[in-house]
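Database export, one record per block. Field names are fixed; values are copied verbatim from the stored entry.
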Amino acid sequence: MPPTPPAATRDPLPFIAGLVAAMFLLVAPWLLPKFVPDFWVSIIAEMLIWGLFASSANLLLGYTGLLSFGQSLYFGFGAYGVAFAIHSFKLGVVPAFFIGVAAATVVAAIAGFFAVRLTWHYFAIITVVFSLIFYLIAVGWKTVTGGDDGMSFALPPLAQVGDVELTLLDATFQYYFILAIVAACFFLQWLLLRSPLGMAFKAVRENATRAGLIGFNPYLIRLISFILSGLLAGAAGALFALFSRYASAHYMYWTVSGEAVIWTIVGGTGTLFGPIVGAAVLTIMREELSTVWEHYLIVVGVIVILMVTFAPKGILGSIAAWRTARRAAPGDPAAADGKGTQT
């Protein structure tokens, strides 16, 4: 691993860009209505949820080298965990959220026990199979899950502070609630990926055989990564259920996982914030193009194909590679092949 550059020579641009993005997200509920319709605040909240969901796929694909099409299963369990906790057990928002995350994590541990024994396309296939099994159960068990019609519920207030009632029915409070949880999840990922465990993920991704020879257990490391990715997907599903007051078997279908993979690839696989950038870009395109042409998904598909073909590192990965090549001295291998360090 190359030595960390001194503080004086570190590139300040990523920090500045992150600070600007953080400031924008903090003031969005007051800033956006001055320029665009109010509903864009809710759209940004949805982008944050989908970005968190995409980050669960990125933890496996970008950092552990496993392509999963089963993240929708844990997303769905997170959503149904919230729905059952509130609707059937009359629990509050916070306990319901943690029940949804716990349910998704337990299912991820069970599925991962079998799935991470495989790699390459075998792993992708078994994740699809797990997703389809539970999707078909959820669709068929309409008396419990509501099937494709879904399961709606009424949100209880989050807390009472004097005469003020904190509730997710307030769009501004809901936005900050989602922002706080998504930010916490990304911060925990940031810590994880810089820890010895995060380095172990990358070692197994690069060469599992060599990682095993130096003392790592590739199966255990992949299982931990799988469980953590399930936890992130479950948190996204729980947030989405609270956001929409709804859970449906539709969100367990494997194509929902495919969207997470696409967002990750477009934003930048193996970059921390690539998934949320990809989710934001494609969501904005969807919202804008859908008002112009009913077949807007064709345009979105073409753009994704062009992105994958000509910028396979994704948006953030391509920017990082371009800036690294510009900073590299003439004759430096990094300038020749465009490879850069990704965060």
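Remark 1: The mean pLDDT is 88.
Remark 2: The beta strands are 151-152, 159-161, 164-166, 246-247.
End of record.
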